[in-house]
């Protein structure tokens, strides 16, 4: 499976700033209130450690700051999903407080004890789905590739298994192949009635989140095993949607709806084919380690 970049983005530029946002320790007396309890808001310098600018969970977090009076003066420090995960790991290693823009499925929920902060105002919406989108005309041009993409459905346990293998150092293609080898019955459902290809080229795009790295490598490997020549390309959220809508890419399995990619779906829904959910029960919100003694966004304090 060939991987190539159409464009490069400076998604890791905020790493140092993101790490700094997690650097205030819970044991710092300056971060204690009059009762001797940790003032978590002050400890994190009134910052949410975020991912890429423009991501749905970042926009929702920025909206939460506007909607919740107790978060006045807060900021979302954007960087990349990798930088956010690094900051989270460093904070947990020191048992420092940190508030992140979180989503699941994600390997971090399997690796760390985390919790979503309750969202009484419903800013982050209800459970989401991850959907498959293809360019217009793919069904006619490559009906067998279209059928595989249309049949592609799996669970949170499935995707997190692949994600954990990648996080533990396995190459994404190797992790994908390992899962495919272990789940032949599931893959057979995706490929039922599909004829092998004689080398047709399929271009898949994805946003470089851990979930989408896992899912795109798995579906790409399945297509490759059927004889397709598959290119997978990581892109920025907006560019990913535009590539499918413009026909520069054949499809993606990375559309989070209704909230995360809702604005992009509204912009491009007439120019793509929505094949429906490939995964249910996804979620976004503000996430903290369980050792932080807060349970709701309303427990945070304004600057």
TrEMBL record:
Signal peptide limits: 1-26
Keyword Transport: yes
InterPro entries on file: ABC_Gly_betaine_transp_sub-bd
Domain ABC-type glycine betaine transport system substrate-binding: 35-182, 201-302
Pfam families documented for this protein: OpuAC (PF04069)
Cellular localization per UniProt: Cell membrane
Keyword ATP-binding recorded: no
Keyword annotations from UniProtKB, A to Z: Cell membrane, Membrane, Signal, Transport
Protein name: Glycine betaine ABC transporter substrate-binding protein
Source organism (scientific name): Tigheibacillus halophilus
